[in-house]
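Molecular record:
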Amino acid sequence: MKKIKNIMPHREVEKRPGTLTRALYDIGFGVWFGGSVFGILAMNPAVEVLDDPEERGKMVDEGWARFQPYGALGLGVATITHFIMRRRAPRKQSDTYKTFALLKDFFIVGAGVTSIASLALGEYAVDDYTPVESATEGTEETPPDVEKAQSGLSIATIGQLVCGIGVLIAGAILATERDKA
């Protein structure tokens, strides 16, 4: 029997990311990106309906303060599981797969950097007593240094959205390339 096993060709089973790892990645990334999109595109500008500019600052500050632990946990889980899944890449990787795997790495790290920048700038740009038009726009009473932080916050939030979309596109291309292999 041992001789037959040595003669017969055999193929090792390719290691693919596990269901739990993939599910944790999807949930983590979904929480971070979904919450970021909601906050940036909906909540930040929606506070303009409040009459008192100081109330706007309170609302934005409180909304982001409540989301940040969940967003950070989601992005942390997504980052860890992303790199676990990277260890289970196809054996025969196409050049496209290699390129988009590196791009996805870049966008995942970029998501972390822009999230930390948004957190830091947001803490400085919007607090309970800062009069604001929205999270990224001041009023006539807004101090100049806070307006500068709000400009930086605008850039950081655009970076978050770009990184999130980049992760989604790169992930879709990687899945397609994996299916071809």
